[in-house]
């Protein structure tokens, strides 16, 4: 459990560790702002492809073997990033690091294969809490690391940790006895990669290129066409990469719908709470906080999501995963509403963040548990990988929409007006309410089935 938690936690940390220091990367590598954002985009695109594909590989050839390979690739990517003399090599290194996204589904699959059934739900909840907290912890750690050690240590420190984790995985994690016969469907892999890249590239560049620009509209059209071809191929294939019958299971598609909507609200808040805090008070709002100070404002969120995430599996016999998911979405809606109307003082933002942390902690743990319980043991990794991917897609779209709403009107020195944040957070409060409604569509699980899963 320790090995899996460290591996997944480090990759989750890397998702948010770089975003706050993009201006520093831009300055040190002498590049433009648009080029520097590709450090994030390359990581996102790579992870979206590798997460489900390598999850499927792990189900086929062995999860421990695949986990060690994935951690090794992540360490290589971190080494390349730490040594990168140019922005082009740094972007390439981040693309290599994206292979680490498969740590999530592989870890969930190993837990289901190796742990006693009575401990599976609690272990998945704990791992989900660590992943969620890691995603926010990067915002807090980025500033102190850069100010004390320098930008390169954002990669050196995780690299050492990942290498030790890979060795520990090889030594202590047993090879999973559950295997799924088959081979990789390369045509399906290419189509999956194609529509994910087209969709996420269009979303990530929509703000800078223009949402109505020919390039963005073309990317969206390509994504729709390739998505249709991919679904058709998978439905007809005797050896699908992603089994569409599994994706159509009521518990799976409803949970994935919530993941998409909840991910949009979650990533929008994560990305823009620090930006709001860093806005100078001369704009009529904001606190003029540094990167480190803005990160500390996220601390209540991290503490709340970690504690609630760990408790989620243990509450299941009394408070079902379905009910927890709906409650998490409602808490997210309340948090976004609070942030929309009350952000004049730091403690108000901290309260809103804490409420959001409660919602994230519940939702992260329950979504994974609901999907894992619903699919055959031979498809655990690929199913949880697709759930993580759908959450990421929702998050990318949410961050893009939030960015458009916040920057729709600019004031002094080109900074957003306060109304943009109010509109943005209010919009995602509504989206979170829709997510709560979708959570109620998740099929009920009988209490007798929950008792052995989360005792």
TrEMBL record:
Topology within the bilayer: Multi-pass membrane protein
Keyword tags: Cell membrane, Membrane, Transmembrane, Transmembrane helix, Transport
Main subcellular localisation: membrane
Protein location: Cell membrane
CC per GO annotation: plasma membrane
Domain of life: Bacteria
Domain Major facilitator superfamily (MFS) profile: 1-447
Keyword Cell membrane among record annotations: yes
PANTHER family: BLR6921 PROTEIN, MAJOR FACILITATOR SUPERFAMILY MULTIDRUG TRANSPORTER MFSC
The protein's name: Major Facilitator Superfamily protein
Species assigned in the record: Kibdelosporangium aridum
């Amino acid at each position: 459990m320790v090995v899996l938690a460290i591996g997944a936690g480090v990759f989750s940390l890397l998702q948010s560790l770089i975003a706050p220091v993009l201006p520093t990367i831009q300055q040190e590598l002498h590049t433009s702002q648009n080029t520097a954002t590709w450090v994030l985009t390359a990581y996102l695109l790579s992870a979206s492809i590798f997460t489900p594909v390598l999850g499927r590989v792990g189900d086929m050839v062995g999860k421990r073997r695949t986990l060690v390979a994935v951690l090794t690739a992540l360490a290589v990517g971190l080494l390349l990033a730490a040594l990168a003399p140019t922005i082009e090599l740094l972007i390439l290194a981040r693309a290599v690091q994206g292979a680490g996204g498969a740590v999530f589904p592989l870890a969930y699959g190993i837990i289901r294969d190796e742990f006693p059934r009575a401990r599976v739900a609690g272990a998945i909840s704990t791992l989900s809490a660590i992943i969620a907290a890691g995603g926010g912890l990067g915002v807090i750690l980025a500033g102190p690391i850069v100010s004390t050690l320098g930008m390169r240590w954002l990669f050196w420190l995780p690299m050492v940790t990942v290498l030790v984790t890979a060795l520990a995985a090889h030594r202590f994690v047993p090879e999973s006895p559950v295997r799924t016969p088959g081979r990789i469907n390369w045509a399906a892999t290419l189509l999956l990669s194609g529509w994910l890249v087209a969709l996420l590239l269009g979303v990530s560049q929509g703000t800078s290129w223009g949402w109505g620009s020919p390039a963005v509209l073309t990317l969206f059209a390509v994504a729709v066409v390739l998505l249709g071809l991919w679904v058709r191929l998978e439905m007809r294939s005797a050896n699908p990469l992603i089994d569409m019958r599994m994706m159509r299971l009521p518990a799976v598609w409803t949970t994935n719908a919530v993941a998409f909507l909840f991910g949009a609200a979650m990533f929008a808040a994560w990305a823009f709470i620090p930006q709001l805090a860093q806005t100078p008070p001369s704009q009529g709002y904001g606190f003029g906080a540094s990167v480190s100070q803005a990160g500390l404002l996220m601390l209540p969120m991290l503490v709340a999501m970690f504690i609630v995430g760990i408790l989620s599996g243990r509450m299941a016999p009394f408070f079902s995963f379905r009910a927890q998911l709906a409650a998490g979405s409602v808490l997210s809606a309340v948090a976004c509403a609070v942030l929309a109307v009350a952000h004049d003082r730091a403690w108000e933002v901290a309260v809103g963040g804490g409420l959001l942390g409660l919602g994230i902690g519940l939702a992260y743990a329950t979504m994974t548990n609901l999907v894992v319980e619903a699919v055959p043991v031979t498809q655990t990794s690929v199913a949880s990988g697709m759930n993580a991917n759908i959450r990421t897609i929702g998050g990318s779209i949410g961050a893009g929409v939030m960015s458009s709403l916040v920057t729709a009107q600019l004031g002094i020195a080109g900074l957003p007006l306060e109304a943009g944040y109010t509109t943005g957070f209010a919009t995602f409060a509504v989206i979170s309410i829709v997510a709560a409604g979708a959570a109620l569509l998740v099929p009920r699980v009988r209490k007798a089935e929950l008792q052995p899963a989360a005792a």
